[in-house]
Amino acid sequence: NDEQFKNVISHAKEYGFVFQSSEIYDGLSAVYDYGQLGAELKNNIKTYWWKAMVQMHENIVGIDSAIFMHPKVWKASGHVDGFNDPMIDNKDSKKRYRADQLLEDKIARYEKDGKTEKAAKLQADMDAALTAEDLPRLKVLIEEHEIACPVSGTKNWTDVRQFNLMFSTQFGAMAEGSDEVYLRPETAQGIFVNFLNVQKSGRMKIPFGIAQIGKAFRNEVIARQFIMRMREFEQMEMQFFVRPGEDKKWFAYWKEARLKWHKALGTSPDKYRFHDHVKLAHYANAATDIEFEFPFGFKEVEGIHSRTDFDLTQHQEYSGKKMQYFDNDLDENGKPYGNYVPYVIETSIGLDRMFLLTMINAFEEEDLSTPEKQDSRTLLRLHPALAPIKVAIFPLTKKDGLPEKAREIMDHLKFDFNCVYEEKDAIGKRYRRMDAIGTPFCVTVDHQTLEDNTVTIRHRDTMEQQRIEIKELHTIIEGKVSW
Ligand code: ATP
């Protein structure tokens, strides 16, 4: 599994999906750039989400709020005081770790060794310490369970301290006297502060949702596993505003709706599971994660949280502005529901994690060996709607007017589909390159094409080739790549 994950990472680099940021300067830790194909795939994932959430729901609209927000936003949201990780340093290696992560690793170790009782006990002790924010207790647990630094191998630890995950910067031209602002650690707050702007200008009636896609920044201390945990990443979030008392119903609805969205991409259902939170954040009355089985285990890709009226009430308090909605629908006693602060169900998915999931799920090294000959190919079995390139057009040879004919077909298709044209190398090699980047269709123009206007279309997954008329191409491709 480690091997498979390594292969995905090097494949992503080799074909222009993901590069390390500032690579020529040896990179910047936990920051990545998307290359020419990665940018396309990422856009297609965004489109799939936006269409499913905004276009398909009459009562959900999308916004694009700024990354910078008033500093008070983060006081109101609780991030200034509470967005912390408990950290511990090893005095010998000078390496810093998340205390809870060290304990989690130990729990996993116990489980692997069949010490299930010990694992359960440590889990319970850790949960209790985290809930009580009892930092000295976390250190005691690390010592009691004889956890050593993975680098130095020693057990020489500092005390556990809280470490805030927000990045801050100076706002305005003069550093002196100007305010400190934060890079947003989540996109949600941009939605909450615009709740009434959108509701009034869009004449939205509860229940309704506001969606957005955008960058978020967290000074993650343990940054690892490629684009799984980054310091600059992108979220796709939707906040759904409901009548108080109807939150549980909508939480259940969004839980199922979001899992359906994942499964509609054709991923094997047993790769997904829910992980319901037992220990809830202070603002939530229910929460679940949608987890995917990565090569390194089941991990969260998306969170669905029932956030009560916490955020809007907090902003009402800190801003002094009413965050209420007037509901003139009638309740069971025939009276209008009247004014209230709505309850919120949030769905929050990491775009980069979804990207990684998509790459891992699509990556395959297929054995094509026959008794006569050893052979294999690397391919990305991407859903055609997500594939960066939809169709590749190849003239069989570089002469006899075949390139011109191939260009003519491309000029027609490129209005609707992302196409590439390629005339170099043997045809088999060209097919394999397209397999490796997940292109669902290759179209080959040969001498027969000039006589009867037919081409061969080759299907990525089956490698099957069909002879069809040029005028059928558009419909065949569209049938597979459209949403
Ligand atoms: P984790 O427990 O993995 O740190 P979280 O519970 O803090 O995640 P949320 O605050 O619920 O995450 O954020 C919603 C989603 O944003 C996550 O499900 C994940 O997909 C994504 N996400 C969060 N932090 C990062 C990060 N550092 N890098 C990439 N994606 C992230």
Keyphrases for this structure?
seven-stranded mixed sheet; 483 residues; binds adenosine-5'-triphosphate; single chain; 16 helices; 35% helix; five-stranded mixed sheet; Herpes Virus-1; 3 domains; alpha+beta; Rossmann fold; BirA Bifunctional Protein, domain 2
Quick description:
By secondary structure, the chain is an alpha+beta fold. The chain has helices at residues 2-14, 36-55, 71-76, 79-82, 99-112, 116-131, 135-144, 188-192, 195-201, 247-263, 310-319, 351-362, 402-413, 427-436, 447-452, 473-481, and strands at 18-20, 32-34, 60-62, 84-89, 96-98, 161-164, 168-170, 180-182, 208-217, 232-242, 272-276, 286-294, 297-308, 325-330, 336-340, 343-350, 363-367, 376-380, 391-395, 419-421, 441-445, 454-459, 465-469.
Describe the protein in words.
With 483 residues, this protein is of the alpha+beta class. The protein has 3 domains: 2-83 and 167-360, Bira Bifunctional Protein, Domain 2 (BirA Bifunctional Protein, domain 2, 2-Layer Sandwich), CATH 3.30.930.10; 85-164, Herpes Virus-1, CATH 3.30.40; 389-481, 3-Layer(aba) Sandwich (Rossmann fold). 35% of the residues lie in helices and 27% in strands. It has 16 helices and 23 strands. The strands form 7 sheets. Strands 3-9-10-16-13-12-11 form a 7-stranded mixed sheet. The chain has a 5-stranded mixed sheet with strand order 20-19-21-22-23, with helices on both faces. Strand 12 (286-294) and strand 13 (297-308) form a beta hairpin. The chain is globular. The mean pLDDT is 95. It binds adenosine-5'-triphosphate. The site of adenosine-5'-triphosphate (ATP) has 16 residues, from strand 10, strand 13, strand 16 and helix 12. Adenosine-5'-triphosphate binds at residues 186, 218, 220, 229-230, 233, 235, 300-303, 348-350, 352-353. It catalyses: tRNA(Gly) + glycine + ATP = glycyl-tRNA(Gly) + AMP + diphosphate. ATP binds at residues 218-220, 300-301, 350-353.
